[in-house]
Amino acid sequence: MRIGKTKIAYIIGALAVLAVVVPLVWGGVETTIEATSRPEFCGSCHVMEPMVAAYHASVHGGNNPYGVAARCTDCHTSHTNAFSYLASKTRSGFVDTAVTWTSNEFALDWQANRARRAEYVYDSGCLQCHANLKDIPAGHDAHAKYLAGTINAKCVDCHEGVGHEGLNKYLLEAKYKYGH
Amino acid sequence: MHYRKRLLIITLLIAGLFVIGAGVLTACGGSVPKAAPQPTISVAPHAQGVTEEAKACIECHAKETPGIVNDWDHSAHAQKGVTCLDCHQTTADSPMVLKDIKGHENVKEPLSMLVPPSTCAKCHPNEVKEFDASGHHRAALQVEAKDSMQTLIHHHEGRDFEGLDDATEQTGCMQCHGMRIKVDEHGIPTADTYPASGIGNIYPNGEVGNCTVCHTRHKFSIAEARHPEACASCHLGPDHPDIEIYEDTKHGQIYATEGETWKWDSPPGDWEPGDYRAPTCATCHMSGIGDLKPTHNVSQRLYWNAWAKISKPRNSDDPMSMLTGHAEKGRAEMKQACLQCHSSKMVDDYFASADAAVELYNKAYYTPAKQMLDELKAKGLLKKNPWADRFQILYYHLWHHQGRRARQGALMGGPDWAHWHGFFILQQNLYEMQDIYKYRMETGEIEKP
What we know:
The complex is a heterodimer of chains A (180) and B (449). Chain A has two domains: 35 residues; 133 residues, no CATH class. Helix content of chain A is 59%, strand content 0%. Chain B is mostly helical and 449 residues long. Among the domains of chain B are: 62 residues, no CATH class; 90 residues, no CATH class; 94 residues. Chain B has 20 helices and two strands. In chain B, strand 1 and strand 2 form a beta hairpin. Chains A and B meet through helix 5, helix 8 and helix 10 of A and helix 1 of B.
């Protein structure tokens, strides 16, 4: 079957459009993902004010001699693969927004939320940076069982205060500041 | 079919495949990953990560020592898979290794009954390092090293009684200060050096320190360590009534009234006002209240040495020094703790009057008492046995008992202790000492009893 000149023109035109549109859309999606990953965004709901303050006080939030900081999504989304990342990010985005709109966010029990921290702090996130856990001498015995998979504990089961240093203090401050 | 329709159907099918694929992958990787179910052990239902070897320990010890297994089962260690062998397994060349113990014939791993601080340091390195820099570290070593204390313990109290003269320190001093623990050929601690519940225990391998004093075994509860009772087993009594002083303060009253409603299990460094309404010993002396970092160095936030004959500001990095700590820095940190609840005016005024009380003791009580002592000594007017000499007994009580009560009562806000048990008795002591000194100096003799 001979493909007509018109059809070829259409195909080339479509490819040209795609060559422009696809990078634009891809870049747009990446930018949106980036923009919604940082404390400036996550902290724009003021219920997050204590968490952002505690984050900045923590070594993971830049309070270290090197100025290295993890972003919110580095710990609070799954990093097993790209799909799990997008799924966990989307889910938390929907859930957090829905909760903010439908409930009195200052009536939330943050201590109860802290108690279930293993549900929203992903080991795959920690292990992105702390990939050489088995090779470090410090904590070698402490991590042996975790790495061997013989215990159920997640990183934050033992490392309770990681990422948000002195969170209880900031929660209390916010409670008095906003009068709830 | 028109080609556009076909194109649309194909596009929709491919998109649909993508969506299904993404959904499948999301379902696989997107939810919170669950670890494989861990076998539970019926005698310790909260424990996990229990290896076959540890299971053997636990099942037998649940019958032999059920209290230990119950305590451990309720510990954070059990929940996080820290089992018996993680602490009690040692190396074959350890001086503490157990040999030929009945019931342990099938145990392959070298075991030790004693757990020195280096074992805890495998997971808690900072806490051990901080402890080693503190005054707690020297608790047993300092008693060992002082000749006058050894004479008091063995000669005057123990009456040099053959075989029995260790009883006073075994049941008394060293149960708080710590024992030098010895083991026999089986690795079992000897009867004369165990039980050893003191904080400055010295282990057969030379290590110093006992982590189980404040967060007791095998529960190792941070909530327990934060309660004032954790300190009270040792920080009490006529010569340092710290728990009694605490109970005399408003902090102690509020704790007594409503302490059972407070939150005690916040993470280290995160235990803040709101969790509690008044501080305990740990809050001011160790915890990460406000911006302070938590520390196991109990000397870090102290200005004075409030227990010595004369109080001086602390200025040493050596844990064996009486002045371990840094006065100005320590005072600033302590004030930071106070300022979480109190105004700076209150805090500054409080420490001004407390410091004045310490200086009054130093200058108006200890200094003249010491001067009288030195003068009497120079003239040979002191009895050789200080414990049978009224003047020397008064001198000892002046600095070691009521002098400490006056200083510590003032520094920690216990007015009854600072005054009635402190300065009131001090002034009576000083008058009596002056009378005796006058008599001895004028007559050149020691008075008859």
